[in-house]
Design a protein that fits this description.
Na+/H+ antiporter like fold; two-stranded antiparallel sheet; 19 helices; 2 strands; 2% strand; Malate permease; transmembrane; transmembrane helix; Mem_transp_PIN-like; transport
């Protein structure tokens, strides 16, 4: 029974036209960005503008839009578990991934650790799963991804930033390091993360979503249906359209900029480094495997406590998120803080190229596991 249901799930993925379409589309847009950069058809440092558009407009819109849905109390515990899993996963990797690179300098450990811990989650994994899923699952995908990525946004803009800006010294520079000002991870530096527009939009969205649990708030009457007053998309003119236009911008802009990054990088050199290959293996194989293990454990715990496990959709989505290439933000940190920028760029390049194979692989594997009785 397990075998037949797993095989059917894998066949369903492989025979899905949209699955191959989104992979081809992403690859093509990356290629266009590569050509534009190589031919110098775009102005210098244009990617800084694109990053700001993504960070200050597209991603906040996507985060807020994800929570503007009617709350389903039948799945409230699953939603809580998905958010907790995200926090556990990103806490573990933020502070533990450097141990995959024991024996290297502290600087290399920090850079590769962060390169392994954080993915271009929204631009690859989420978009691929949305493309292959039916229309009635789109809102659930947005909700699950937003909940799982709470830990991602918090740690990437706080702990990862502090780790990457921390100065490391070789043995022959120890005396100089004693004179340097020590940088400590303080409570105030942690608070800076809440100035991030994505985090702000996420927490506003969570508040509006959970507000629906209050009795008597469904007073907005539209087309014979009552909505909560927190469903601001239903009664503020144009809001739903604005969010619907801005949110989809994140992926194509990110894919285009990734192509430009590839054009600037030394691809041959990336393929020649054993260390870069090892980091890529950890990022694309070991971390998704860790995610699979965590989800199986928590799904069984949820089944024991509520009688229902985590849905296979949430499981496959989160594994695809983790299997995505290294986040551009981490490469940006390495460049800004001059912390092994070359190695970070090489890992970013190789994870992008190899993820074209590894993301479909993990979607197939997780779909097969998700079709078993371990998940709902």
């Amino acid at each position: 029974m397990f075998y037949s249901s797993s095989i059917k799930a894998m066949i369903d993925v492989l025979s899905n036209f949209n699955f191959w379409s989104i992979l081809i589309a992403a690859s093509f847009i990356i290629f266009i960005g590569f050509i534009f950069q190589r031919k110098k058809l775009i102005f210098a440092d244009w990617e800084k503008v694109v990053v700001k558009i993504i960070l200050y407009a597209a991603l906040p819109a996507l985060a807020l839009k994800s929570f503007l849905i009617d709350i389903n109390t039948d799945y409230i515990w699953e939603s809580i578990f998905v958010a907790i899993l995200g926090l556990i996963f990103y806490t573990s990797l933020t502070f533990g991934s450097k141990y995959f690179f024991i024996g290297k300098t502290k600087s290399i450990q920090d850079t590769l650790g962060m390169s392994v811990a954080f993915s271009s989650a929204v631009y690859f994994g989420v978009m691929i799963i949305k493309a292959i899923s039916p229309a009635d699952q789109q809102q659930s995908i947005d909700l699950y991804s937003s909940l799982f990525l709470i830990g991602f946004w918090i740690f990437m803009y706080s702990a990862a930033d502090n780790i990457m800006k921390k100065k490391r010294y070789d043995e022959n520079e120890v005396q100089n390091s004693l004179l340097a000002e020590k940088q400590k991870f303080s409570f105030m530096s942690m608070l800076k993360v809440f100035k991030n527009p994505v985090i702000i939009a996420t927490f506003i969205g969570i508040f509006l979503w959970l507000f629906q649990l209050i009795p008597g708030v469904k007073v907005i009457h539209i087309n014979n249906t009552y909505y909560s007053i927190s469903r601001i998309d239903k009664f503020i003119p144009g809001l739903n359209q604005v969010l619907g236009i801005l949110a989809p911008l994140a992926s194509p802009l990110a894919w285009f900029s990734m192509g430009a990054v590839l054009a600037k990088s030394q691809i041959k050199e990336s393929f020649q480094s054993c260390l870069v290959w090892w980091a890529t293996f950890v990022k694309n194989i070991i971390t998704p495997l860790f995610c699979v293990g965590l989800f199986i454990i928590f799904s069984l715990l949820l089944k024991i406590t509520t009688g229902k496990g985590i849905t296979s959709l949430a499981f496959v989505l989160c594994v695809a998120i983790i299997a995505s290439p290294t986040a551009n933000t981490i490469v940006g940190y390495a460049i800004i803080y001059n912390k092994e920028p070359k190695i970070a760029s090489h890992v970013g390049t190789l994870t992008i190229l190899t993820s074209i194979i590894t993301i479909p692989f993990w979607i197939l594997i997780s779909s097969a596991i998700g079709a078993t009785s371990l998940f709902s």
